[in-house]
DNA sequence: TATACAAGCTCTAGTAACTAGAGGTTCAAG
DNA sequence: CTTGAACCTCTAGTTACTAGAGCTTGTATA
């Protein structure tokens, strides 16, 4: 099976310019070209792009994905290095959730105070003006 | 009270280049200058920068902050437009939390499966290769 | 008052992860 | 053989800053 960039795009739900971008930054290896200089992809490359998109969807950075790809390609590594990358990412996700929950609380307090007040002035601006 | 950019920076915990950047994009009005062309700030401008930093800490985008500032400066607006901006932002924060929680679950499943397996192969890479 | 040096100035470019557009070429169907 | 969708490269824009080069100003101390 050989794919044009458009076919690969449909197959992986990854936009055409994004595929070219991944090639530019060396995340996807350079594609073979047709006689007329158009990119042609193999099933392996399609599989790799699936891997990348799936990882992105899980919030891994392109840098982390580069590491993961390296772990796939290179046999000389501890079995669970990929595990560690994922663990580390999980910690970051959890931190982010905590931060956002605090934010949610602060916003809620701000908005609720204003609702309760009942005056014609909006207290949201006022509370944003207070130094925290 | 008149501040140099460095004093303002300390007062607001906002880095010097960031202050200049805010001026460039029109978020802070252009500062007065000393005879030697250095920026001089008033207490009002200091207050405004506090407002901006507080809003940023709550996750408002610079664009949203521009709106909020406009609401402060312009008398002709409904009392609760700022309220609406905050409400909208709250909804976004909550959506983001939901997304991250789902992510957390998926990562956890991936990592746990690998732990349980007990084999020498890391299943993290395997599961990232599966099309979702 | 001379001097040293911290702090200020402008301008350019880099970060992450793409996206959009211009202007031109190739492929495939009819 | 023609048409038009899909492809090509290259540049620049997005968000919110940050870093660095190369130069100037302000201020504390001798």
Automatic annotation (TrEMBL), chains A, B:
Domain of life, per lineage: Bacteria
InterPro entries: DNA-bd_dom_put_sf, MerR-type_HTH_dom, MerR_fam
Protein name (Swiss-Prot/TrEMBL): MerR family transcriptional regulator
Pfam family membership, one: MerR_1
Residue ranges annotated for the HTH merR-type domain, each copy included: 2-71
SMART domains reported for this sequence: HTH_MERR
Keywords, sorted A to Z: Coiled coil, DNA-binding, Transcription, Transcription regulation
PROSITE patterns, sorted: HTH_MERR_2 (PS50937)
Lineage of the organism: Bacteria, Pseudomonadati, Pseudomonadota, Gammaproteobacteria, Alteromonadales
Coiled-coil spans in chain: 83-113
């Amino acid at each position: 099976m050989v794919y044009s960039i458009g076919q690969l795009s449909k197959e992986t739900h990854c936009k055409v310019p994004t595929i070219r971008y991944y090639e530019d930054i060396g995340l996807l290896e350079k594609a073979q070209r047709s006689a007329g200089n158009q990119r042609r992809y193999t099933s392996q490359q399609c599989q790799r792009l699936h891997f990348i998109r799936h990882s992105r969807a899980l919030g891994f950075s392109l840098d982390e994905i580069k590491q993961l790809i390296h772990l796939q390609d290179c046999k000389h590594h501890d079995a669970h290095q990929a595990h560690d990358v994922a663990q580390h990412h999980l910690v970051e996700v959890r931190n982010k959730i905590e931060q956002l929950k605090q934010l949610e609380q602060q916003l809620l307090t701000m908005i609720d105070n204003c609702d309760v007040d009942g005056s014609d002035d909006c207290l949201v601006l006022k509370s944003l003006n207070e130094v925290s």
